[in-house]
TrEMBL record:
The keyword Nuclease does not apply. Keywords: DNA-binding. This is Helix-turn-helix transcriptional regulator. GO terms for molecular function: DNA binding. Residues 6-60 form the HTH cro/C1-type domain.
Amino acid sequence: MLGDNIKELMKLKKVTSKELAEIVDVSPTHISYVINNKRYPSVELLEKIADVLEVSVDEFFKDEPIKDEKLQEWKEKYNKQNKLAEQAKYIESIKLDSAEEAMKFILQQPSLMAFGGYDLKEMSEEEIMDLANDLLFAMKLSLEKMNRK
């Protein structure tokens, strides 16, 4: 029961027993015993595992198997986090080394272009670079805020 629930959550989160063992600082053998219901973990270890799997400890002790709708809810949350991580990687990969690159980046931002108020033709290269870097910074802040939810 306990081990089965942990195993299901590990599958959902795509965490291997080796990865889990490393993160919670126990041997892979110990994790194997826990997920195969051969050994009961300490409360401290359960809390660490719950943190890694992003659930509360009580999820491990439910008598009924984890329901499809609960799995779906977790999958959606997991997918959302993956999308945010992908967006963060993309934003981190953007390097604006010239005013031309900055201009292309600005023009790719539909919300900014729809807002208007910027006459890029009248802006200096330095102002364009500043605007593009400010946009990148705002995007990073937005992603950090989304990650906290």
